[in-house]
Amino acid sequence: MLATGLPGVFYPLNVVFLLLPTHLAIEASVLVHLFCAGWFMALYARAIGLSRAASLAAGFTFMGSGIVAIQALWFTPALAACVWLPLGLLASERLCTRRELRWVLLLGIAVALPALTGWFQAAAYSVYAIAFHAALRLAGRATRPEGRAHLPFAVASLALGVALGACLAAIQVVPSWELQGLTERGPGSVVTQSQTHGTQTLAALLSGAVDSSPGYPRLFYLGILPLVLAP
């Protein structure tokens, strides 16, 4: 049961399930993580120079985005895994621009907690996004002499933060990795590409960003709120 991951035994915020009846704990978990989603995104927006109003708009937009909303409706482990991404981007931004080791700890936490929720897909995507963000920021700083002097510290601290996150998450990842190797979807299995990823085209995915028809939420759907807040 531990190796399946989804119970999130080691995820700290799941303590609510020990304190409340299950149906109330699910509701509380959704509310807490939606708040965290907005708060973390607003903090990241402020870190990259947005105004307070723009940062609030960014936070509300992320809270109501398709990927967050769909997980809040039915799948709390995936919701919990998604909301830590802005915190990881915040830590990456600080490490790329400042010589402050405290952000290494925050990056480690932002990498570890999505994995501890047991939804490894979102955890992996978060690491990809943080790495892509860091690569872009460091490439930009490499064009200036003062930025190039900061590169060794930034690269080392980013690597240290990710390694710390991997160590913190190992208590969940290691048994889950062992179990995954025993399943039909493990390495070397006969599951086809279409079975694992589906056959949906990129055009169909992007069309969901503006499709307001009732039904199952679209992952890329932005909703009406961002359009209201943008002006």
Account of the 3D structure:
- This protein is an all-alpha fold and 231 residues long.
- It contains twelve helices and no strands.
- Helix 2 (22-47) packs parallel to helix 5 (76-82) and helix 4 (66-74) packs antiparallel against helix 5.
- The longest helix is centred in the C-terminal third of the chain and has 36 residues, at 145-180.
- The model has no long low-confidence stretch (mean pLDDT 87).
Low-confidence stretches: none
Q: What is the N-to-C succession of helices and strands?
A: HHHHHHHHHHHH
Helices, by number, come to: 12
**What is the approximate shape?**
globular
Assign a percent range to the helix content: 55-70%
N-to-C span: 49 Å
What gyration radius follows from the Cα positions, in whole Å? 19 Å
Summarize the structure.
Helices cover about 70% and strands about 0% of the residues.
What brief labels describe this structure?
231 residues; mainly alpha
Describe the protein's topology:
Blueprint: H1 16-19, H2 22-47, H3 52-63, H4 66-74, H5 76-82, H6 85-97, H7 102-116, H8 120-141, H9 145-180, H10 193-197, H11 202-207, H12 225-229
